[in-house]
Design brief:
By secondary structure, this protein is an alpha/beta fold. It contains 18 helices and eight strands.
């Protein structure tokens, strides 16, 4: 059987017969007079052939990110920021653990220092949020009609605040109206949301820079989310003092998220290969595919994480390493927030979601009373196998990543001597070795999964089209849903 034609091949054939089409939205109207007689003749011939649906590739990308403030002690400024924004009433979000820590205390003192700045605190955000926990937070926010929001915590807190903000504005909407299709309706967000300031207390998700928010759909045993530029905070306050009390296990898991945000966004299909081209700019997704701007942020974040995350694992009091990882998290957030992630994240959603009913693994170092495979760990479990699979799509980019892990330049003979066909195998070993050094469980078996669970994990990954469609060898192959490839990657990730 002949191999499936790639989308790029199909598009070259289509473009050869429709070479008069101008790529911009404004030049695609019926009055645009670039048609040639050859095209008209071809259209006549099509009457006698099987109709072919024209699918146009993307031709543009957008860059969106929150404003960032980076520095030691900047949390104390948030009260002034909200006063400057003329806040009428502030909704403050945090979780039960951070509520008792210094970052929250400083934030509240800053709010209290301002005259006539009322606020209410919601401190029941769930680590690894669920549909139920989001609905509770939304209901609470709708009762108060906040003019502004403040999130102090990790990605779970910031994502929950984003969602509460969204549904404060869309008072009659249901949660699933904006959840990514095909899980939800994936409706566009056309109304302006309330200003949100995000104060991260972990160096991982980069949620302070992005329009993404992730939750666990417990009824379907996988994660998904809402991804729209409208959700992004107006300001990310990145305070290097705020990760001082973070446990080492949380530092590592959060850092793994940074690692794979940068790797996946850098190796995603190019934005020019993404389909379909949006009919209206408002429909252009936040996750667009790799692009020149995102590449810069992603590669810097990758280099920084490989250098500093092992230092934090050895000494969580390493101030320089903690500061650099906070900056790397934000840089990676800008990278993947505009390019997207792909297979590691897509497969992590059922890995963590099914754990609650299946293995019930509880990761050491996490102070929670429920089973948990931390997000960064769930992403890392498939990392070596994923990048062995994606390497043939762009050997040069994977070669650059290999050089970073090996601590050499891309021109080093140890890198240049590797044939393109073998780059993936070398990268597999380098990623696996890096994860070993951080004490990451070695594959799905190590967190309690059995080989018989692989089919369920694949089924839970298939609905994650938002990220799968950016995966090399899946997202850029016509008619490819990825089931066969995902199965092989899961099998290769069972133990190593």
């Amino acid at each position: 059987m002949a191999p499936a034609a790639t989308r790029s091949t199909i598009f070259r054939l289509i473009n050869a017969s429709q070479h008069s089409a101008c790529p911009c939205h404004g030049c695609r109207s019926a009055t645009h007079n670039h048609a040639h007689h050859g095209v008209l003749a071809l259209n006549q011939l099509r009457k006698f052939a099987t109709p072919v649906q024209t699918v146009e590739k993307e031709y543009a990308f957008e860059v969106a990110a929150s404003n960032l403030r980076f520095g030691e002690g900047v949390t104390r400024e948030v009260g002034m920021d909200l006063k400057n924004m003329k806040a009428r009433k502030v909704g403050v979000f945090t979780d039960p653990i951070v509520a008792k820590l210094k970052p929250m205390r400083v934030a509240l003192e800053s709010l209290e220092s301002q005259e006539d700045l009322p606020f209410e605190v919601y401190d029941q955000v769930l680590a690894e949020p669920t549909e139920e926990s989001w609905r509770k937070a939304i209901a609470w926010a709708r009762q108060h009609d906040f003019s502004h929001f403040l999130a102090v915590g990790g990605g779970s807190v910031i994502d929950t605040a984003k969602t509460a903000n969204l549904f404060t504005v869309y008072k009659d909407a249901d949660l699933m109206d904006f959840v990514n299709a095909p899980v939800g309706k994936g409706l566009p967000i056309s109304q302006t949301l309330r200003p949100l300031i995000a104060v991260p207390t972990t160096a991982g998700t980069g949620s302070e820079t992005t329009g993404a928010a992730i939750f666990d759909v417990t009824s379907r045993a996988f994660k998904t989310g809402i991804a729209n530029r409208a959700l992004k905070p107006v300001l990310g306050v990145v305070d290097t003092a705020n990760t001082e009390s973070c446990p080492t296990a949380v530092h590592i898991s959060a850092g793994l998220d940074v690692l794979f945000h940068s790797l996946e966004s850098y190796t995603a299909i190019p934005y020019t290969e993404r389909t379909p081209r949006p009919a209206n700019p408002i429909l252009r997704p936040a996750y667009q595919g790799s692009n020149p701007v995102a590449d810069i942020f992603s590669m810097w974040a990758l280099r920084t994480t490989v250098k500093y995350l092992p230092r934090i694992a050895k000494d969580s009091g390493d101030h320089e390493a903690r500061s650099q990882m906070l900056l790397a998290a934000s840089f990676a957030g800008i990278g993947f927030g505009n390019a997207g992630v792909h297979l590691c994240h897509g497969m992590s959603y059922p890995i963590s979601g099914l754990n609650k009913k299946g293995p019930k693994y509880k990761h050491p170092g996490y102070m929670v009373d429920h089973p948990i495979i931390p997000h960064g760990v769930s992403v890392a479990l498939t990392g070596p196998a994923v990048f062995q699979f994606t390497a043939p799509s762009s050997p040069d980019r994977h070669r650059e990543a290999l050089a970073v892990f090996n601590g050499v330049t891309v021109t080093d003979p140890s890198i240049t001597s590797i044939p393109d066909s073998e780059v993936g195998a070398y990268l597999y070993e380098s990623i696996a070795s890096f994860l070993d050094g951080l004490g990451v469980p070695r594959g799905l078996k190590a967190v309690g999964y059995n080989k018989s669970d692989i089919s369920m994990l694949v089924e839970g990954t298939l609905p994650q089209r938002r990220v799968l469609d950016l995966a090399p060898n899946i997202g850029n192959v016509a008619g490819e849903d990825g089931r066969e490839h995902l199965t092989r990657i899961m099998e290769a990730s069972f133990e190593y």
